[in-house]
Structure formats: structure tokens, C-alpha cells
Amino acid sequence: MSSDEDGLLNGLGASIFQEPSDYYPPPKPATFESKTLPTGETLQLRLVGHNPLWGHHLWNGAQVVTDYLYDHSQELVHGRTVLELGAGAGLPSIAAAIWGAKQVVVTDYPDEDLVENMRMNIDATQDVLPQGSNIVAKGHVWGASTDPLLACLRPGWCGFDTLILADLLFNHSQHAALVTTVQSTLVHLPTARALVFFTPYTPWKYDKDLAFFDLARKGGFRVTKVVEKVMDKLMFKDDRDDELLRRTVFGYELSWEHLEGK
């Protein structure tokens, strides 16, 4: 091969496999959804434009668990410490802060866009948060060390009173990791509760959704069903199978089995 040919190939090598600048579609812009709380505040929640972790949706489970927190605010919110896992826009966490939670930590996978989006939603609601409210956004991988989350609590607090898991159970491979995080963050008190709300968006895998609760029982929790609500509309109209099931939000409470009755 001549030196001229060699130089030509080297030059091509730098660009032949490089896509044109307009090869990929531009990132989808953020969207906003409005949610009016039972106490009258209207929140404009920012959703990331698109995310493989599904943070670009305001899930039914998040909306229903928010209403449940309001209905049981004295036991679950007022003066309590609250942790949300896989929060997306952070609706239940922000509502808990508005309704008087002592400390709120809202978390999702440590993706820069997701975490920054949660912070933006917190900042956007400063005018309706009570004076002295304490709410922060953090990245967290389920099953990983929870020390950074527990460090958000005041000295002497060893766990959160209320945990929120809204529409996370479709991540079947992550059930064990979720249980591990709940075990290490839910305070060991009889009044502590982890709220697990979900919709079987893929009804043919409903049994796999429910398998989470088998792991929770093995992990030391009592599982109590507390909510079954049929929504007016489907979230994903093009999905198949049982439409009623795909419109239904189921809510469960986890509590420490060994502390029942104490």
C-alpha cells in the first residue's frame, strides 16, 4: 500500500463511522403536569423530557398515595420523617413537606437529569412550603448503602417514620434491592410504615408484581392491603390485557412484624 493510500485510509478512519450531527433526534423537552392537592395548593410539576427509568410520567400510584397521605396525615406525615424511593417528580414528598413533615428526603436513581428535576420541583414550591420545612433531593441506587440518606436525619434519629414506594413494582429484578433499602431505612418503631402503591400495568405479570410482598414478609414485614382504587383513565392506552386491572391502584402498608402489638 502506498503512503498516499495509507494516509487516505487514516483520514477516513476518523470520520467514516461518525454519525452526522443531526443523526440522533434532539432531546425531548421537559413537560409539566398540574396537580391540585386536597388542601387547595396547585403544584406545577416538571417532568423530564424522556428517561429510560420512566421519570417522564406522573404515575397513578404517586397520585393515589398522595391522597392517602392526606387522609392519614396525623399518623404518617405531621411531625414525621419521610423518605421516598424512585420518586420521579416527587409529588408525594412535596405534599408531605407542605403538610408538616419534619424531614423529607426525596430520591431517585442518581441520574443527573432526574435528581436535578426533583430539586427544581422543590424549588418551585418554596412559596407553599411551611417556614422551616426541610426537604432535600438525593440520588440513591436501591440496595446500596443508605448511609447518605440516613445522614440527612438529625443526630439521634436512626430511620424514617414513613417510606413511599409508588409504582416501582414493575421493576421485578429490583424487588430484593428494594426490600433491602426498606429494611435499612424504616425506623424500628411500631408506628413506622412503608407505603407501597402500584398498578399492574402489565396484567400478565401481576403475579410477579405481587412477589415483592413475599420477599417483604421474608424480610420481617407485616403486609396489609389498605387501598384499591379504580382510576378514570388508563395511563397507557395501547397496552393489552385486562383494562380494569390496568386502571386499578393497589395500596399496601409494610410494618415491622416483630413490633406488632407493642
Structure report:
The chain is of the alpha/beta class. It is 31% helix and 22% strand. The chain is built from nine helices and nine strands. The protein has helices at residues 3-13, 60-71, 73-76, 91-98, 112-124, 147-150, 175-185, 206-218, 243-246, and strands at residues 31-36, 42-47, 81-85, 103-108, 135-139, 162-166, 193-198, 221-230, 248-256. Strands 5-4-3-6-7-9-8 form a seven-stranded mixed beta sheet, sandwiched between helices. Strands 1-2 form a two-stranded antiparallel ribbon. Helix 7 links the parallel strand 6 (162-166) and strand 7. Helix 2 (60-71) runs parallel beside helix 4. The radius of gyration is 22 Å and the shape is globular. The mean pLDDT is 88.
Mean pLDDT rating: 88
- Series of secondary-structure elements, N-terminal to C-terminal: HEEHHEHEHEHEHEHEHE
Number of strands: 9
Order of strands, widest sheet: 5-4-3-6-7-9-8
Count the helices. How many?
9
Q: State the end-to-end CA separation.
A: 85 Å
Quick one: biggest sheet?
7 strands, mixed
Which stretches are poorly predicted, pLDDT < 50 over at least 5 residues?
none
